[in-house]
Write a structure and sequence with these properties.
five-stranded parallel beta sheet, Rossmann fold, alpha/beta, CheY-like_superfamily, elongated, ATP binding, Helicase, Ruva Protein, domain 3, 3 domains, transcription regulation, ATP-binding, 46% helix
């Protein structure tokens, strides 16, 4: 069932439409004017909005125009004295349907069914486009024992809603694993929101994660939804969670325990339905002992604990990875794929990869640019270090 908002300045219309929708087991919110309706659109996780066109103050077309700036929620416009011109204008702005008063029950039900179906199709279309765009970059390449174990664990974990904590050195592909888990899950058509906890200043992390109300602090000039809200129905990936401030950790713990958040400066609980995947390159047990990480949050996050091996621990994958990056980078540059000799692969396997997969990709890109038609062991020796002699 859907969360539906009714915006109408006539109490009788709101009441009658609310009764119809609640009889069909929908959750209904009501607003008596455009300003109140826009506020509810910003606060609640809504699936559909019925909006009257003729209202005092802000009319329905103004509400629709303003809502379209921040939201893609389907709007069904309603009016007791509508014209073809008005209906056409509403559809041009972005409404999905137009219904005249008094309401016909069958007409209302068909409109809801079509609007929700359209929303679902639009989500699937967006996800399909995103998957096509990310297709090459979200593959997990490798046949080593460690990577096979990771792939097998992903297949088991992905269809569930279990929280996952991914550990491993920088550059090992923790984000890639998180995306694979999401894309193989039942939430694949919903958002995947990535948060780099180390890149957000500690004084802003709570606002970024949970949103804020207008005026809650000096630069809060308007209301803002947080990343947990934006991930509703999908997955939020908390990368480098070991660097998160303790105050934010406490709020994340509450979100995991209660499935609800509160915006900074707000007093209203907002329900969320989010799968949480976290990652870190730190030893969280050591951080717990030092007082830098909450033990209760660790146990909430680590329902499934997944470690990604370093490239130095899976050097037999270097040949596969190198050829994959050769295909990918040459295609990006619009050039024929360069060959790489067996001796060059052996030279790459002999190196110490402190930067892991990220460092290997950068090295292959450098070799593609600076080498001739075939990458040789001499090229690896000459160009593997970015500081050329």
């Amino acid at each position: 069932m859907a969360n539906i908002l009714i915006i109408d300045d006539e109490a009788g219309i709101r009441r009658s439409l609310k009764e119809i929708l609640e009889f069909e087991n929908h959750t209904v919110f009501t607003a008596e004017n455009g300003k109140e309706g826009l506020s509810l659109l910003a606060k609640e996780n809504l699936d559909l909005c019925f909006c009257d066109i003729k209202m005092q103050g802000m009319d329905g077309l103004e509400v629709l125009t303003q809502a379209r700036q921040d939201s893609d929620i389907p709007f069904i416009m309603i009016s007791g004295h509508g014209t073809i011109e008005t209906a056409v204008e509403a559809l041009q702005i972005g409404a999905v349907d137009f219904i005249e008063k008094p309401f016909d029950l069958n007409r209302v039900m068909v409109a809801i069914k079509n609007a929700l179906k359209l929303k679902k199709l639009e989500k699937k279309e967006k996800e399909l486009k995103r998957r096509i765009k990310k297709k090459t970059s979200t593959q997990i390449i490798g046949e080593s024992k460690g990577i096979k174990e990771v792939k097998a664990l992903i297949e088991k974990v992905a269809p569930t809603d279990a929280r996952v904590l991914i550990t491993g050195e920088n550059g090992t592909g923790k984000e890639l694993v998180a995306r694979q888990i999401h894309e193989l899950s039942t939430r694949a058509a919903e958002p995947f929101i990535e948060v780099n906890c180390a890149a957000i200043p500690s004084e802003l992390i709570e606002s970024e994660l949970f949103g804020h109300e207008k005026g809650s602090f000096t630069s809060a000039i308007k209301q803002k939804k947080g990343l947990f809200e934006l991930a509703h129905g999908g997955t939020i990936f908390l990368d480098e969670i070991g660097d998160m401030a303790l105050s934010a950790q406490a709020k994340v713990l509450r979100a995991l325990q209660e499935n609800k958040i509160t915006r900074v400066g707000g007093d209203k609980d907002i329900k969320i339905n989010v799968r949480v995947i976290a990652a870190t390159n730190k030893d969280l047990r050591e951080e717990i002992n030092k007082g830098g990480f909450r033990e209760d949050l660790f146990h909430r996050l680590a329902v499934i604990l997944m470690h990604i091996p370093s490239l130095n621990d899976r050097k037999d994958d270097i040949g596969l990875l190198s050829n994959f990056f050769l295909d990918q980078i040459c295609a990006d540059y619009g050039m024929p794929k360069k060959a790489i000799s067996k001796d060059a692969i052996k030279s790459l396997e002999d190196l110490n990869w402190t930067g892991n997969i990220r460092e290997l990709r950068n090295t292959i890109e450098r070799l593609i640019i600076l080498s001739d038609s075939e990458i040789s062991a001499q090229d690896v020796s000459k160009y593997q270090n970015p500081q050329l002699n």
